[in-house]
Write a structure and sequence with these properties.
With 771 residues, the chain is mostly beta strands. 5% of the residues lie in helices and 58% in strands. The protein has a 22-stranded antiparallel β-barrel.
Length: 771
Amino acid sequence: MKYHLPFTILILLFPILLLSQETATGVIKNHQTGEALPYAVIYNTTNDQSAISDLQGKFEIDATSGKDTLVISSLGFVNKNIVAKTSMSVALKSNTFALEEVVVSFNREQENRTNAPVAISTLSPAVISDNKPTTIDQVLNQSPGVYMVDLGNEQHTMSIRKPIDYGASYLYMEDGVPIRTSGVFNHNALIEINMANVSRIEIVRGPSSSLYGSEAIGGAVNFITQKPSVSPTAGITLQGNDIGYKRADFYASNTFEKLGIRFSGYYADQQNGTLAHSDFNKLALSLSANYFVSEKTELNWSNSLVDYYSDMSGSLDSMDFYSKSYGSNQTFTNRQVNAFRSKLAINHYWNTRAKSSLTGYFRDNSIKQNPSYRVADDFKPWIPSGDPNLAHGQLNDNSFQSYGLIAQHKQDYDWLNSSLIGGLSLDYSPNTYNADYIQIFKNDDGVYESFAKTDSVLSDYHTDLVNVAAYFQGTIEPVENLKISGALRFDNFNYNFENNLGKNSFTAVLDGKNIFSRFTPKIGVTYDLQNNKGIYANFSQGFVPPQVTELYVGNKIPTLKPVFYSNYEIGGWMNFANQKAKLELSIYRMDGLNEIISVLQNDGTSIRQNAGETTHQGIEYSLMVNPISALSIRVSGTYAIHKFLDYEDSGMEFFDNRMPQAPNNIVNAQLSYKPKFIDGFRFSVEWQHLDSYFMDAANTVEYEGYDIFNVRAGYRWNAFEIWVNAINTTDQLYATVARANAWGQTYSVGNPRNFNIGIGYHFGKEEKTNR
């Protein structure tokens, strides 16, 4: 009997032992988007056990249901304490004041924001959702040092560390892959983005050519798309304003065991807007799928389709602008964009210290135009000749297809806490350009009434663009909290040009090849001062070859030179006031050689030409204050000076002149209120300020700048959401950009006061969004 007693006790205690060894499972997701959060840390405070979520956000941990306390944490999110359950779904909310934020645009991989020696800012899913932008500039302009110019109907240009210009100075990406191929830049490239599929936006200010290649000069804007949600979600929103704009957004998403799928899109339409001849419509669709082959391997497939049409009303002269006469001299000019992108990526995680990725992509893009900016009058008042009822223009089609491959490997090492990233890329993009000459009839009131297509062909060419590149980036930590990073990229561009026209045509460049190659380095250092404070410094260079249309269209000999930039920068960050305030600061100087600028001609058209030497220097800042939990205040801005150092045009020298369209101060501030006593309600007031600036290189004409205010309010109750945005609340007359030449001024008018009202239903998301 004595031998059976221990066995009997063990049998009696067995259920208790099983209970103490219970396993809890769950999934960690983003509260705002429903996306899985990999690499979240789950810590059991009761038994001191921990676990990390996998690529699908899933985890297992030893925990007693209903008894143990788990702490869930992830960089950039608010920690969450929960009582363990056998099966859990945990949603984490983003931390507005987190400096320990994860960014991917610094090195194409996830990186702690405080380890990145660059000026980089992030627009979170919450920011995008709360502001309900109808155009991307309405959120991008909340970033320090960023002024995205609204040209109407989602048409745009940009100013980041440079004056407002229309050239190839900015790289626009979707999940780290350029939206358009290098060499065929278009300042309206963000028309090709599906805003309904954007989760967050990262903006790197300053040259990033060492990693991403050409065009990443003033900055790089990376649109991070939404991944499939871990559970079923779907939604639809309808909105419209009182100046003719209407839009419908929709999405549906779910994960079926190892396969996640998301479908989203929107249709926008405008009729009878503020300006005459300014109607437009756009359909944007996205389909993505994630397949988790194993715990270490995932496949990501994404597709995007955009079908866009817009009238082109052109700009206003000074008389029409200041008298608020919003008629248009144009009646037929237009822009049509058709863009399709498909990308397949495989990511393999060899272990916690090594990852390899291979991405293949295809792009099919066409921009067809009857452009208002190509309309030129036959009669010139300074030359007593020409027909006052005749003008000239063109119909053109600029199209390309791309076949590309990006291979990359990242390896972390114990030695000096170092890491190394290496990659290769290949982009083959056949490009065609056709332009037909048209005669335009202009009536006695100055309205371009009609046009006739002629047999004259201005341009008809084919260019094979081949870009081969190799890059690497390394980081070491020689002493604790001090990180040094260096990067180097080599690009080789080949333009194989075939002209189908003769040597006496408008585009008369002979068949041939142009090759542009360059090493672009970058070196940076960050020092973590602890207690949420740190500083950084970097030196970087940028490189832009002439764009294909700049080089060949309308020329007999390609004369434009490549553009080079050198950037010197220091900055820092800090949390203070008991973690209720956050400040980020960057000071930079960027010198340009052979900078290509847009020069407005006396007949109203523009040409591109090298500007010798230029300099750009300034300070960028972002201050966020959260005095109480319900109230937040943000001030973002830049003070900059942009000058010509060596530039001559038409016999005039512009040494030390301010560059045109270059305001000193750009400020965006916002006060947001989310009261506890009305859960789901939000209210904000935004101020956008733009200083005065010269409208011409001679510095003879000045635009006074503007101040506009936007008020936004919204309420979400369970799955339903309503909002009202009052844009330009004070009905300020302002121009988003103003230019001048010897014979007058032109203004792109900003929208007058308008009220945008929306309603939405979101199935499957968290009910409460404030806390």
